[in-house]
Amino acid sequence: MSGMTVFDEHPALGDGDDALLALVQALKERGYAFTTVTPASHAKVEARAPGRKATNLRDVFGWSRPFDEDVLPPGLFALMRQAGVLVRGDDAWRSAVRVSSLDGELFLHSAYPPSEADVVFFGPDTIRFVGAVTEHLASLQRPVTRAADIGTGSGAAGIVIAKRAPQAEVVLVDINPRALRVAALNARSAGAANVSPVRSDLLSAVDGRFDLIVSNPPFMIDRAGRTYRDGGGSLGEGLSLAVVEAAAARLAPGGSLVLFTGAVIVDGEDPFRRAATAACEAAGLDWTYREADPDAYGEELDGSAYAMADRIALVVLTATRRQES
What residues contact 304, with CB distance under 8 A and at least 6 apart? Predict the structure, then answer.
């Protein structure tokens, strides 16, 4: 397959973006909704009828199935062409983007399969992560004035913060230019004017302190080194620990980190918990740690990278700097 895509190497919005936003708005007006599953589940669904063509909008923009032009309502094909998200195959078209539902909004992200190193990933963990952030926001006793979403991807968590704290400055941080482009589009689509996409390795290109830092970094062991998936370290924990250390250095008094990540359990022990909570204590941060799901990504245990693992848990670490007396 060949064709154009909306993504380029510059995070600023440009040609075709208005058409892409109009496409998302048209989907909203037609009541489009889609819950994105994991790539493993997606593959199982598609294996039931390999190569089947799309018959509706969910097939085109959710399941990334090939489609004929007449499947789309009038005007949508032209918007896709204008936005540069049409990819031509041998006998059908495909969309270069997917659109998923969350928090009453529609979010753009990369098409299936997520095989490129710099795809903009959105899936069940995005929903879990946003849930953890929303729960934390509801518990706060004072308003958020400055927040950062590290490794923002589609921008979902930062946009959810921006909607609930319209007075706050929300910085969407990512090292991936594609992600910043998509996050900026999603922010415009959601009407979140108080966000700033910034290309940065963690918080290295961002100044100042924050009273809320959130992150859902990659945490898998990925031999292909895909940016959206590979967490580094011996068990995929490297980037998550780096987020803890970066946040510890930049939280304002009373500020909190909400980290949603994975933890590999080996012989009943959680090495990530031990390292992350030790880093919090060394920095004088109070913390809580819980398993949001004790057994996720079981299919990964078949690979040699996880030969010693009991399970992979999804965890939420919340760390808070004490108020100055």
Answer: none
Q: Which tens digits make up the pLDDT trace of 119-147?
A: 999 999 999 999 999 999 999 999 999 99
Alpha helices in 115-228 (DSSP H): 124-139, 156-164, 177-190
Output the CA–CA distances (angstroms, integers) from residue 155 to 54, 92, 130, 170, 297, in the order listed: 28, 31, 10, 10, 23
CA dihedral angle for residue 67, residue 72, residue 76, residue 80, rounded to 10 degrees: 0
Q: Residue 39 burial by CB count (10 A; 0-12/13-18/19+): exposed, middle or buried?
A: middle
Domain 124-321 fold is Rossmann fold (3.40.50)
Q: Positive or negative, the Cα torsion across 223, 290, 217, 154?
A: positive
pLDDT digits (tens, 9 = 90+) for 68-100: 999 999 999 999 999 999 999 889 999 999 999
> How many CB atoms within 10 Å of residue 267?
7
Q: Kindly give, in sequence order, each residue whose CB lies less than 8 Å from that of residue 131, ignoring residues fewer than 6 positions away.
A: none
3-state secondary structure of 177: helix
Tell me what pLDDT residue 253 has.
96
CA distance readout (Å), 285 to 190, 248, 280, 302, 322: 33, 8, 5, 37, 7
Measured at the CA of 144, the angle between CA 142 and CA 145, to 5 degrees, comes to 120
* Interval 201-249: pLDDT, tens: 999 999 999 999 999 999 988 776 677 778 888 888 999 999 999 999 9
CA distance linking residue 135 with residue 292, whole number of Å:
13
Q: Which residue has the tokens 């195959």?
A: 89
Peptide bond into 218 cis (omega under 30): no
